[in-house]
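User: I've been trying to design a sequence by hand for this structure and keep getting stuck. Would you show me what you'd pick, starting by listing the structure so we're on the same page?

Assistant: Good idea, let's start from the same input. This is the structure you sent:
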């Protein structure tokens, strides 16, 4: 089904989301002074301001309360606070991160003595901070703990790319075990199981599918005999530089491999349906994302009809991409016409440097927004649009972000729309070990909040840890607010301990 994003559709979208896009969305720069209170914002809903715009204010009546650190970190032991402050501070020092990244990528990891020493030190620093456990047993303890504190868990075995059917089968079994394990967790403590398509479909095939889908978008007469039901995957503004020439059709072997990939994903979705736990597919880089979206939408069409208004299969939208908003509109409109609830996890995106490098090496403009403000606007607009979809019953969203402004804006709009904790179709989410203040602030404000719990043995989660190291580096990273508030709380406890 071909749906075009007409100027009218865009105009309507822009009207709906104008309120969010007009607000500043970057995290305030916070000094590393534990006495100084962070600037507080209040995002006033339309009803209060009468203008339909969101306003900044220094009032303490913000939807998220970060000022009462005692309440915010009430479930944190002193040890956990000290460890988090230490790890997050180390991760903010560029030379430390550079050195860590160099070591983790170096051949030293292949030298037996060094390997043990390196993995040991990673385990007691970054790993402890960002990884929920080495296996399902340890992870279940983490889930129980955060569930006791009012948060839910998104289970993500830290698998990366697979290159043949044998590894895809192994990865499939790991995902299936993860889904099966949810039977033994406290009811509703697990909000999602995460699946990476590049772990259950060989990488070379995902690249071929993506090339063929791009070519089909450019030339609709180009037929893809293997293509099953899907939602629109690409838009007129999607980049095409990855596919400079007409790709060969899939070989018989590739078609068989595709069938196997479909079967793996379908079986995972079927089990999720039976156990009533939704599945979210992660987004990866643009080279393979069309193939990922194709498989995701195909399963969403089959399974989302079966779970009532709450989708079983969610895709992920990366708001740092220039074509993200347009693709989201096309997919949601098409799903609506099919009477299908659609679910998205919305993120900013974690592959920024590799995306820009690849585009530059091919002599093309980066697919990432030209300014960070454009990314913030895109994130907030897509979030706002999907919140409206919750209200009209056609969509669901996971707002996966560490950005405090995006959290506040969405929380304020959700409150105005009457979407609260009882509604499974809105979930806020942060990575385990990051943005604790935002997670607990949103939970205290009355929303469902999940932690994205990556687990696995230390050597298997190194690519994930490298992405976290990149993300947390620098004094302005999203861990800045946590470092400051946790430091304030430690100081408060110290003073209370000495009766000061
Ligand atoms: C629960 C969860 C699930 C996730 N799943 C995925 C996933 O499936 N796929 C994926 O790719 N990522 C995923 N991520 C990672 C997410 O994309 C990163 O956390 C993201 O890079 C940080 O964005 P933020 O919303 O936390 O905002 P912020 O903390 O405000 O981060 C902003 C960052 O965006 C970057 N940025 C984006 N656009 C620009 C631009 N135009 N110019 C300059 N800088 C820019 C900068 O590095 C900046 O530091 C997930 C995150 C969470 C919390």
């Amino acid at each position: 089904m071909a749906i075009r994003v007409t100027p009218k559709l865009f105009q309507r979208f822009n009207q709906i989301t104008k309120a969010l896009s007009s607000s500043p969305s970057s995290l305030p720069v916070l000094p590393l002074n534990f006495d100084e209170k962070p600037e507080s914002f209040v995002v006033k809903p339309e009803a209060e301001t009468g203008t339909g715009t969101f306003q900044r204010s220094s009032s303490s009546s913000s939807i998220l309360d970060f000022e009462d650190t005692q309440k915010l970190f009430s479930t944190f032991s002193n040890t956990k606070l000290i460890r988090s402050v230490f790890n997050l501070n180390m991760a903010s020092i560029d030379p430390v991160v550079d050195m860590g990244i160099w070591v983790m990528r170096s051949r030293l990891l292949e030298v037996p003595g060094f390997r043990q020493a390196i993995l040991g030190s990673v385990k007691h620093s970054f790993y402890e901070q960002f990884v929920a456990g080495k296996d399902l047993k340890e992870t279940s303890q983490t889930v129980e703990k955060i569930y006791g504190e009012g948060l839910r868990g998104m289970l993500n075995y830290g698998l990366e790319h697979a290159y043949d059917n044998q590894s895809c089968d192994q990865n499939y079994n790991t995902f299936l075990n993860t889904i099966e394990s949810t039977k033994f967790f406290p009811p509703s403590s697990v909000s999602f199981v995460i699946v990476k398509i590049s772990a259950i479909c060989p990488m070379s095939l995902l690249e071929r599918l993506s090339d063929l889908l791009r070519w089909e978008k450019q030339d609709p007469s180009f037929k893809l005999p293997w293509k099953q039901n899907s939602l629109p995957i690409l838009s007129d503004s999607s980049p095409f530089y990855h596919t400079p020439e007409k790709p060969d059709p899939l070989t018989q072997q590739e078609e068989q491999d595709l069938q196997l990939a479909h079967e793996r994903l379908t079986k995972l979705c079927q089990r999720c349906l039976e156990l009533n736990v939704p599945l979210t597919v992660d987004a990866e880089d643009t080279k393979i994302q069309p193939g990922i979206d194709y498989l995701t939408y195909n399963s969403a069409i089959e399974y989302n009809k079966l779970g009532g208004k709450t989708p079983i299969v969610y895709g992920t939208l990366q708001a740092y991409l220039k074509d993200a908003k347009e693709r989201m509109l096309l997919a949601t409109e098409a799903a609506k016409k099919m009477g299908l609830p659609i679910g998205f996890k919305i993120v900013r995106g974690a592959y920024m440097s590799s995306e820009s490098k690849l585009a530059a090496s091919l002599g093309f403009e980066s697919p990432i927004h030209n300014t960070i403000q454009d990314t913030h606007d895109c994130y907030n607009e897509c979030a706002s649009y999907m919140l409206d979809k919750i209200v009209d019953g056609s969509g669901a969203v996971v707002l996966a972000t560490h950005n405090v402004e995006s959290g506040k804006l969405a929380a304020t709009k959700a409150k105005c729309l009457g979407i609260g904790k009882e509604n499974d179709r809105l979930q806020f989410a942060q990575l385990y070990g990051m943005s604790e203040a935002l997670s607990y602030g949103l939970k205290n404000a009355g929303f469902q909040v999940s932690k994205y719990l990556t687990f696995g043995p230390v050597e298997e989660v190194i690519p994930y840890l490298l992405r976290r190291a990149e993300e947390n580096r620098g004094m302005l990273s999203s861990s800045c607010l946590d470092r400051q508030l946790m430091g304030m709380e430690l100081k408060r406890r110290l003073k209370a301990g000495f009766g000061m």
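That's my pick for every position. To get oriented when you compare it with your attempt: Strands lie at 152-157, 190-195, 279-281, 313-318, 342-347, 395-400, 426-431, 449-455. Residues 27, 282-283, 316, 318, 320, 347-352, 368-369, 371-372, 374-375, 400-403, 429-431, 452, 471, 478 surround flavin-adenine dinucleotide (CB under 6 Å).
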